[in-house]
Write a structure and sequence with these properties.
The complex is a heterodimer of chains A (254) and B (197).
Chain A lengths: L5 H4 L4 E3 L16 E9 L2 E8 L3 H10 L22 H8 L4 E8 L8 H4 L3 E5 L2 E5 L14 E8 L4 E10 L2 E9 L12 E8 L5 E8 L7 E2 L2 E11 L5 E13 L1
Parallel strand pairs in A: 7-12
Antiparallel strand pairs in A: 2-3, 3-4, 4-5, 5-6, 7-8, 8-9, 9-10, 11-13, 13-14
Chain B lengths: L2 E4 L4 E3 L6 E2 L4 E5 L2 E9 L10 H4 E9 L7 H8 L16 H4 L6 E11 L2 E10 L5 H6 L9 E7 L7 E3 L14 H4 L4 H9 L1
Antiparallel strand pairs in B: 3-5, 4-5, 5-6, 7-8, 8-9, 9-10
């Protein structure tokens, strides 16, 4: 069987990946990202993505009793105990608890006459500035708590950006909401967030939350009321669980 | 202080032919229509080697602008974009690695569609098929592929149902390089034929 390496799958359309390991790194092994939404302000596209926990290194640890790499920046995954019988289950669970990050690209790159040679330049937000390359660069989490698959929309009623994320801990699912701590539609607001609280989900599965305005025409702008869409598991005919799209109405107060 | 209130009980939206939803809807207004993209699997449970390419990916439905989601299930049932034979929902995007000739598949999700300089672009998420690599790390710890990338694609001729990569993939013959939408537009079996050529 032929397994693709990073070089094989990479094409010019790839703009963002994870932080590359620097110590004893197996070939083609990188840390992944999960791109979840975008916001355009002026000529810039802001890409929101989940920095996935560095599970691969944990697995290497469990198999070879040796760390192949380390992350110099805070991660939501605690150092695992290799003798823990529930280690795999815990790691797969914590996979859902990444950290939200943001990167920026200039949209003029997309229409540049020399695009073929120039490509798209994406910069990750790191330590207060968009200064790390989209490919292999470091990043800084922008939310005060863990969260994954964040969707960002601008709320005209609040005059702030609102982000909704999924969170999973020990099998308990919740949807978390955040609002930018700075008013207005500007870049600073996209890197400064405060928590609005969480919503427990009864069923043991809630993924890919997305906020859509009340008339269902936009996932970029919403007002006081709207819809929270997400994927939920429902019982199937033969007892299996099937992921289905679900929605709940949501309203904001100030 | 900002607070929010959420309905206690969710509405479940069924989509005919889609047995596994894998992503909430992504919206894009274009002209007088509203395009809605969502990740999904047509077949479930799936065989990751045989069925992924023709089953998983991004599907779409479109609504006339002015429609609303007051009866979302009905809207989705009647608005889903079907393939050329009218038999299956149209795969707007299929797994990236499968298209690139590998036996290993990656999901490919649209997460944001936007218009810039009168051209339509989309931001996509590429991920592998086994829990973003953890499964591969267990089975094949020294030869694992990437697990999680961001990619940009562009609509062909301004059609939000046909997307091309911004550049041709280096390993494919240019004459065989077709739009993803074209490859996926003529039914299940011809999809295999198109890829085999």
């Amino acid at each position: 069987m032929h397994w693709q390496t990073k070089e094989e799958i990479m094409s010019n359309s790839i703009i963002l990946d994870g932080e590359v390991r620097i110590a004893k790194q197996p070939p083609g092994n990188i840390r992944g990202v999960a791109v979840s939404s975008g916001v355009i302000i002026g000529n810039y596209l802001y890409v929101f993505y989940t920095r996935l926990p560095d599970l691969r290194n944990h697995f290497y640890r469990t198999k070879y009793k040796e760390w192949y790499g380390y992350s110099p920046y805070p991660t939501v995954v605690p150092k695992p105990d290799p003798n823990d019988p529930d280690l795999v289950k815990k790691l797969l669970t914590s996979y859902l608890c990444g950290s939200m990050c943001v990167a920026r690209m200039n949209l003029n790159d997309l229409i540049h006459p020399d695009y073929v040679n120039r490509g798209v330049r994406v910069y990750k937000y790191f330590n207060g500035a968009f200064n790390q390359p989209g490919i292999c660069g470091y990043d800084t989490a922008i939310l005060p708590t863990p969260g994954s698959y964040g969707h960002v929309t601008f709320n005209t009623y609040l005059n702030r950006f609102v982000m909704v994320t999924q969170y999973d801990q020990d099998g308990v699912q919740s949807i978390q909401l955040f609002a930018s701590s700075i008013e207005g539609k500007n870049e600073s607001a996209l890197t400064s967030w405060e928590s609005l609280g969480e919503c427990k989900i009864v069923r043991p599965y809630a993924r890919y939350p997305r906020l859509i305005n009340s008339d269902g025409e936009s996932d970029q702008v919403m007002g006081k009321e709207g819809w929270l869409y997400y994927v939920i598991k429902v019982p199937g005919i033969k007892g299996e669980e099937k992921p289905r799209m679900a929605r709940r109405s949501i309203s904001f107060e100030m | 202080m900002v607070t929010f209130r959420l309905d206690d009980y969710p509405q479940i939206l069924n989509t005919r032919h889609i047995n596994h939803h894998d992503g909430a809807p992504v919206l894009f207004e274009h002209r007088r229509e509203l395009y809605v993209y969502f990740g999904g699997f047509r077949d479930w449970p799936w065989d990751p080697i045989k069925m992924f390419a023709n089953s998983s990916g991004v599907y779409a439905f479109y609504l006339k602008k002015g429609s609303n989601f007051s009866k979302p299930t009905n809207l989705i049932e009647n608005s889903i974009v079907m393939d050329g034979n009218g038999r299956y929902p149209l795969q707007i995007l299929r797994p990236l690695a499968y298209e690139n000739g590998s036996e290993f598949d990656h999901l490919h999700h649209i997460v944001f569609v936007f218009k810039y300089n009168n051209q339509i672009f989309a931001l996509t998420q590429v991920e592998d098929s086994f829990y973003n690599g953890e499964w591969n790390a267990i089975k094949y710890p020294t030869n694992t592929p990437v697990y999680g990338l961001g990619a940009m694609i562009k609509a062909r001729d301004g059609n939000p149902l046909q997307f091309d990569r911004l550049h041709k993939l280096p390993r494919r013959n240019v004459s065989q390089q077709k739009s993803l939408g074209h490859l996926c537009s003529s039914g299940r079996h011809s999809n295999f034929n198109a890829l085999a050529n």
